[in-house]
Amino acid sequence: MNQQAVLNDEKAAVNVVASNDCSLDALQVTLSELLSLNERLLALTLAERSAIVANDIQTLDRLILEKLRLTRQITRLEDRRQALVKLIPGNPTSISELLSSLDSATAAQFQAIHERLIKVILLLDLENRRNAMLLTSVVQAIRRTVDLVLGVHNEMSLGYAVAHQRVDGNRLFGARVLDQRV
Description:
It contains 4 helices and 2 strands, in the order ααααββ. By secondary structure, the protein is mainly α. It has a two-stranded antiparallel ribbon. Helix 1 runs antiparallel to helix 2 (57-87) and helix 1 packs parallel to helix 4. The chain starts with a helix and ends in a 9-residue tail after the last strand. The model is unreliable at 6-19 and 171-180 (pLDDT under 50).
């Protein structure tokens, strides 16, 4: 009976180690997939900048749709990554906790993937911010052009309010005010 209990404990320990190895293997695969998708997302973001600069709306639309598709895939993988982390004994809350519980070869593999993933995500954030600034500049230029065209069309001078707008209740202010004689 005592021997049977020891045997059961050994089987349970082997199952935990096997389960842990499967979770770690699945986590490593998931992190590698996340890295690959984020690298593709970074490439699309760089192509997006080229499309913005070239004013290529069709390409920009296609790139945005592809980025949205990749983002959905990344979200699913991130959910899987979080679920896999919960299966690891000790429930590590950081990469350093996870690495400290692994053998050196496995820890080095995880560390390399993790560092590369962080680097790609930071670059992706930077490039997205650059693209957002470019798009903002383009929109502002379009607004200035529209304001200029509408201003001329409505007999407005740049920098003046709409014709016949009351400023202080007594005076009229607008494009036509400059034409009035005092």
